[in-house]
Amino acid sequence: MLQLLTKPKTTSQRPFIIRYAIEGSNYIQILAWDKHQKPHSTEKESEIPPHPPYGEGNGDGEGLKRESTLDNAQPTVKESLKSKHLDFVLLTDKEYKTLCDLFGEAQAKGMIEKLNNYIGSKGKQYKSHYFTILNWAGKDGIKRQTIAKKPDYIRDFKEPNLEEQKKVNALVQSIIKK
Q1: How much is the pTM?
Q2: Domains of the chain: which residue ranges?
Q3: How far apart are CA 62 and CA 45, in angstroms?
Q4: CA 57, CA 128: separation in Å to the nearest integer?
């Protein structure tokens, strides 16, 4: 039975569980736990360590292998590692950096704190904390900061006209004479 749960019959199906070992202790992770279970907001955090990312050891002498899907899709954002910000907000490093780039670090931290306080007080759950923050920022009318782009000198290069060439030549000649 355990074999069937960890390795589905067809490659288009994902495994239901992952077996792994950390520091000599064996564990089982139900992959779609959050889809089927809604723990209460005051529920104590698990003391069981999370399973290692795909490709790292699982205690069986093999790395965790992502089961291939019909289109061999990359892991989704939900499957990638997210960092915990404050008590409840989960964002990938890329999402956090994007928020900082869009709104500035201080404003991004303020919006994360607002979401964290709301989740903590109401127990609300969101599919994506990143998109929730973007949505709230739009509703609150928070302005995105202008991101100064680095100049691309090769792309922006223009051939100097005849007058500019004469000025450059005169400058070069004056430097050479010194």
Answers
A1: 0.41
A2: 1-75, 76-147
A3: 28
A4: 29
